[in-house]
Amino acid sequence: MIDLDHIRRLLAERRDGFSLPQGFYVDPAMHEADIKAVFEADWLFACNVCEIKQPGDFLTLEVGPNPVVILRDRDGEVRAFHNTCRHRGSRICGKEKGRATRLVCPYHQWVYELDGRLINARQMPPDFDRDGYGLKPVHVEVICGMVYICLAETPPDISRFRAAVTPYIKPHMPDRTKVAFEMTLIEDANWKLVIENNRECYHCAGNHPELLVTLVEFVLPDDEQGRKFQDLLARKTSRWDQLGLPHRPAEGGQEFRCIRLPFHEGMLSFTMDGGPACNKLLGDFTEPDLGSVRMFRVPNNWNHFLSDHIIHFRILPLSHDRTALRTTWLVHEDAVEGVDYDVERLTQVWIATNAEDAELAAVNHRGIRSMAYEPGPYAPSEFMIRNFLGWYAAKMESFANPHAPMQVAAE
Ligand code: FES
Ligand SMILES: [Fe+2]
């Protein structure tokens, strides 16, 4: 049972510019509130269309207690359904990925078409109305090949996000890729700590030797911390302007961030020597020196779009103290393993970085459980966490005060 008074008290304690009151991170009951207020309410990144290329290809995921199946129907459309049988509720597709001509429930073999219609329910009486028992649909939006789903009855508007990020990511053609490698890491931390960790690079210098071979730690074009960065940026962006590739930060507010930033001079890709990770470039690119488009969207997705590969990151909370991070590395759909790319070289930097971040988030979570914990101040360079927590607090405000929408606007 969710105690809305408890959430209201925690929100009242919250100070802008400080980490959250303890209960938001460590209270087991907060998991259910987060699922309802955030994960059942907003758009979530699910996968790339290349993972469900052929009719009948499906991919499953679990949003809190909700099993979901995403598939390609016979007409080539991407669809999503609640992966729960309309007979007695059994989960239908059990595998994370697969191909099926129809979806057959393992319990009593009710059979569903790829468009969700119930087409066979054996032993049910002749007058049984199959039309009333199709799979319940889940909203789907495909943005340049990235599949987002929303479990809410009426999803929030995603058109501003679509319009803003498309010019940045479309040239990389995420829809013309294939998965070179994927992995799921279970992190022992609340999902908000996983996001917070991702939203700042204050921790990079002390923790990410592999990443910092290539990654420049500055996060905004007007970053005043380094003349060297300004010079590098000016050189790179004048070339990107010639190529028609947008790079200035998009107006994402608290909802999303999208920007193209350079790597260190001479570095082209996330590899241990900065050289290319894949010799076949994405899309129509002929130049490898495109830095990376970094795109983040609340609540569960960040990405890097490079000249030669794309990395999608997706998180889903498993409990108040466990979070699944799924990472997919994508290369051009025609790239050949062993010829154009080597999986170990392609994945080395971010496998190491993910592991380092997972440890940081887990240790962060452990420390927050202490009786001595109290919310601490963010550094100016942690401004993206403030954005994220401002967004999160507004979500929780409207959840905890369902009849007072004006309080959301005030936040
Ligand atoms: S629960 Fe699915 S067929 Fe019975
Ligand atoms: Fe990190």
List keywords for this structure.
seven-stranded antiparallel sheet, disordered C terminus, Naphthalene 1,2-dioxygenase Alpha Subunit, Chain A, domain 1, alpha+beta, globular, binds FE2/S2 (inorganic) cluster, six-stranded antiparallel sheet, Rieske Iron-sulfur Protein, binds fe (ii) ion, 411 residues, 16 strands
What's this model, at a glance?
The protein has helices spanning 4-13, 22-26, 28-39, 159-169, 191-198, 204-207, 227-243, 343-368, 383-400, 406-410; strands at residues 43-48, 57-63, 66-72, 78-82, 97-99, 103-104, 111-112, 118-120, 137-143, 146-150, 177-187, 256-261, 292-297, 301-305, 310-319, 322-332. By secondary structure, the chain is of the alpha+beta class. It has two domains: 43-150, 3-layer Sandwich (Rieske Iron-sulfur Protein); 167-368, Naphthalene 1,2-dioxygenase Alpha Subunit, Chain A, domain 1 (Alpha-Beta Complex).
Written account of the structure:
The protein is α+β, with helices and mostly antiparallel strands and 411 residues long. It has two domains: 43-150, Rieske [2Fe-2S] iron-sulphur domain (Rieske Iron-sulfur Protein), CATH 2.102.10.10; 167-368, Naphthalene 1,2-dioxygenase Alpha Subunit, Chain A, domain 1, CATH 3.90.380. Helix content is 28%, strand content 23%. It contains ten helices and 16 strands. It has helices at 4-13, 22-26, 28-39, 159-169, 191-198, 204-207, 227-243, 343-368, 383-400, 406-410; strands spanning 43-48, 57-63, 66-72, 78-82, 97-99, 103-104, 111-112, 118-120, 137-143, 146-150, 177-187, 256-261, 292-297, 301-305, 310-319, 322-332. The strands form three sheets. Strands 1-10-9-4-3-2-5 form a seven-stranded antiparallel sheet, with no helix packed on it. Strand 9 and strand 10 (146-150) form a beta hairpin. Helix 1 (4-13) runs antiparallel to helix 9 and helix 5 (191-198) packs across helix 8 (343-368). The longest helix is centred in the last third of the chain and has 26 residues, at 343-368. It is globular and about 75 Å long. The two termini are 26 Å apart. Residues 407-411 have low confidence and may be disordered. Bound molecules: FE2/S2 (inorganic) cluster (FES) and fe (ii) ion (FE2). FE2/S2 (inorganic) cluster (FES) is lined by residues 85, 87-88, 90, 105, 107-108, 110.
